[in-house]
Amino acid sequence: MNIVLLGPPGAGKGTQANLIQEQHHLTLISTGEILREEIKKETPLGLQVKKIIESGQFPSDDIILELFEDALKKMKDTGVILDGVPRTLNQAQKVDEIFKELDIDLDIVIQLAVEDKELIKRLSSRMICKACSASYTPEVPPRKEGVCDKCSGQEFIRRPDDEPEAIKMRLHIYNEQTKPLIQYYSKTNRLKVVDGMKPVKEVQAQIELLLSDLQVLTRKSGCLYSAQDI
Ligand code: ADP
Known about the structure:
Layout: E1 2-6, H1 13-24, E2 27-30, H2 31-40, H3 44-54, H4 61-74, E3 80-83, H5 89-101, E4 108-113, H6 116-125, E5 127-129, E6 135-136, E7 156-157, H7 164-178, H8 180-187, E8 191-195, H9 200-221
Parallel strand pairs: 1-3, 1-4, 2-3, 4-8
Antiparallel strand pairs: 5-6, 5-7
Helix pairs in contact: 1-9, 2-3, 4-5, 6-7
Bound molecules: adenosine-5'-diphosphate (ADP).
Adenosine-5'-diphosphate binds at residues 7, 9-15, 122, 126, 135-137, 139-140, 196, 198-200, 203.
């Protein structure tokens, strides 16, 4: 099962990607996470992209696609969840090409739909675990106060790209460059929309329903794209 999560910053892609990964043991490729790691380690790539990312902009398609292809080639024999890639039409076309070369089917694109006002609220209150980057807000706090659910880390930081100016920039870029992907994927019947305004557990349940339909369908037909409506 190979999945793309699509949605504006703050829609809950990272949150849901982690939940899907736990449930289905897929490989998670989050280009944002890879880049934040590179920045933390001060690698040549990290130093190159630091300023760009922290101002709310995104590195070039070439950088993203190279990271993506590297991560994909390291993938064991599992399916994959893509979070943060593709983000432009050009990236989406290249991802399709790379998948085709590697004989991977993109089974489903899940769009998390969330209103701008809610996105701004979430991003401006988001804190991430310094050790593993799991993210929290006052509405979605760790189960135990001050302790990360995922790695038990106890230090939380703000992402530099969650500052107000950077948030504005990222939402603008999303509307300009990423929104066209909704049409790109719906034209090829790969898009499913989920109400991302709902609480995390409800969003997860909506996604699980889509994924279980998908698994039934894949078992039945062995071929997904022949089915028009899941
Ligand atoms: P993205 O990866 O799309 O930028 P995140 O998964 O980091 O989004 O979510 C943004 C913030 O909103 C996080 O701090 C997370 O805890 C919170 N969040 C995620 N999903 C929901 C939800 N369904 N309702 C309320 N808050 C959420």
